[in-house]
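Appendix C reproduces, verbatim, an entry submitted by the partner laboratory led by Prof. M.T., so that reviewers can inspect both the input and the predicted structure.
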Amino acid sequence: CRKGGDMKIKWLYILAVSCCLAGCSDTPEETETTHTQEKIDLLKSISVDEERIDEGKFYSWQEEILVQYDEALEYLSRKYPSYEFTITDCRPENKINNMNTTFWFTAEGVPEDYELCIGDSGYEDNFYGYLVKEDYEKSLLEILQKAVPETAAVSTVFNTVLGEKYDETLTPAKIMADSSGVTNSTEIFILEQDPVQAEKFFEEIKETLLYKGVYGSYHIIAVSSGPDSGKDFSEFVKNDQSVIVTDQRYNNFTHRLS
């Protein structure tokens, strides 16, 4: 699921495609009904017929989006009862390009947008990644530092959309035990100025990930220095790549060996 541009020509194309796939005639079936202003604003942002929407008239594909809007919020509230959500954007289904309907949403107190996709598996999202990120990074760092004390930091991103099983009760232990369910992309930072020694540390890191069965795609980076305490290590290296001594990428999709 990826968020596209906001040019209205794109939505004109989507409207035409949606109507064709729904078997619409030159004058698509429309209904009249009442919806909240938030839903109306969202619909107008992805449509080219704002006056009709203001009149409370909707094509069948627009009605479907409004139904999915309600179902998406119900799904999120059921999965994460401790949070309140707002849907911020939508990309309607496009069967020609094999794209499912996608909503983007935010939670109260959370600055980033997250994705909710509607596909063959039902409703799936990636908000769980925000909830588990900090504890997961702490747990993974502890594991790696036992093998390589020079490991300074890890930074993990969970982008895969997953269903209701992966809710706000998800823990790092559950992720590491259910290695086929949750994938991630993780940067691992090691403080080491000698590239030869750094390569040896890389092998120890990879061996630890393999035997612990910690699934994921890894970018292991040896750096000559790091940020001040409490600062974001990943952002520091991104802004000053001269500190990179050597690096290596590694994918671990192997079952736990220990």
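The radius of gyration is 23 Å. Additional entries are available on request from the coordinating office.
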